[in-house]
Automatic annotation (TrEMBL):
One Pfam family matching this protein: Glyco_hydro_17
Transmembrane segments: none
GO MF annotation list: hydrolase activity, hydrolyzing O-glycosyl compounds
BP term (GO), one: carbohydrate metabolic process
Record keywords: Glycosidase, Hydrolase, Signal
Protein name: Glucan endo-1,3-beta-D-glucosidase
Highest rank taxon of the organism: Eukaryota
Family of the protein in this entry: Belongs to the glycosyl hydrolase 17 family.
Length: 345
């Protein structure tokens, strides 16, 4: 086991789960497994815990990993793979059977509270039929969970920032969901989440938004290195605030701005009240030559600051005091992922 190849950024500031309150605040870590050099589950889970994570999120529901996670004392979030969505949407029986076969062992485990149905389903235009099967699959799985005595489990899904038109968060108050999903998919999705008291889980990486616009947006704004978030950091950069003319609000970091863009997009569809949470955030610790800013130092800074920000309970300008579950990406570098180098780091 080559532990040296795993770069684990300490999640300083992670806090424990707030007891049984409806708006759970905790910081977890994504446990992706697309690597051929990853340690066995008990060691991985111990790494997650020692880094300060209160929860682990999986991209599937493989018992080899779920069972040790369930016994670890951490919160654990299983995922329903995208490929299963058509079948689970088409048949209540299929959903009942999947829940019985996969999740029944965890029926009484109070640390099983969320189920993610699919991962960034709305980002993939090559499987567009699944977009329309997503909410029916979520509804069938929710019924199946209730039938099997797991009422407490909130059913959700994860949404990338590409669900927002042009991924444009400038200004956040003008953000809207893409026209090809807004009315037909996102509106029923957020109606479902609101009705069931669940969260919309977004994948929000300030890194990519900053990189696309680095001539305008300073790095420290993307790293949450503001005076209030990091009193100890040397003030090498001038203060930067982004002014949203639509709301008259001044933003002090890009993370809040991105979350408020999603809030604005939900409000635009008439569902202002849906709770928001973060399925993935983080910063790449390495990248290709043109992927500037991707390095371990920035990654550590970002993770530290975002953990502190979330733990502060400050919320965002549109949602002051908002607390939410959030997961850093990721526990490991994953050497079998394709795409640019940042994907593997
Ligand atoms: C679960 O993961 C183990 C270990 O990687 C693997 O051997 C097994 O085939 C997986 N099971 C399923 C159902 O994918
Ligand atoms: C870059 O930032 C400016 C405002 O500072 C904004 O008008 C523009 O839309 C942004 N571009 C992208 C690609 O986000």
């Amino acid at each position: 086991m080559a532990m040296a190849s795993h770069l684990l950024i300490l999640l300083v500031g992670a806090v424990a789960v707030t007891a049984a309150t409806e708006t759970a605040h905790f910081l977890g870590v994504n446990y992706g497994r697309l690597g051929d050099d990853l340690p066995p589950p008990p060691i991985a889970l111990e790494l997650a815990r020692s880094a300060g994570a209160a929860a682990v999120r999986f991209y599937d529901a493989n018992d080899t990993f779920l069972s040790p996670a369930a016994a670890s004392g951490l919160l654990f979030v299983p995922g329903v793979p995208n490929e299963l969505i058509p079948n689970l949407a088409a048949s209540q029986l299929a959903a009942d059977e999947w829940v019985a076969a996969t999740l029944l062992p965890f029926r009484r485990n109070r640390r099983f509270r969320y189920l993610f149905v699919g991962n960034e389903v709305l980002s993939d235009p090559t499987t567009k039929s699944r977009w329309f099967q997503l909410v029916p699959a979520m509804a069938n799985l929710r019924r199946a969970l209730r039938r099997h005595g797991m009422r407490r489990v909130k059913v959700s899904t994860t949404v990338g920032m590409d669900a927002i038109v042009g991924q444009d968060v400038f200004p956040p108050s003008a953000a809207a969901f893409r026209a090809d999903i807004a009315g037909d998919v996102v509106r029923p999705l957020i109606a479902f989440l609101e009705r069931t008291g669940s969260y919309l889980f977004v994948d929000a990486y300030t890194y990519f938004t900053w990189r696309a616009n680095h001539t305008v947006v300073p790095l420290h704004y993307a790293l949450l290195e503001t005076a209030s978030s990091s009193p100890s950091s040397p003030s090498t950069s001038p203060a930067f605030q982004y002014y949203d003319e639509g709301t008259g609000l001044y933003y002090e970091n890009l993370f809040d701005q991105m979350l408020d863009a999603v809030v604005a997009a939900m409000c635009r569809l008439g569902h202002c009240g849906v709770r928001l949470a973060v399925a993935e955030t983080g910063w790449p610790n390495a990248g290709d030559l043109d992927e500037f800013g991707a390095n371990a130092r920035n990654a550590a800074t970002y993770n530290r600051n975002v953990a502190r920000r979330l733990a502060s309970g400050a919320g965002t300008l549109r949602r002051p005091g908002m607390t939410m579950p959030a997961f850093v990406f990721a526990l490991f570098n994953e050497n079998l992922k394709t795409g640019p180098t940042t994907e593997r780091h």
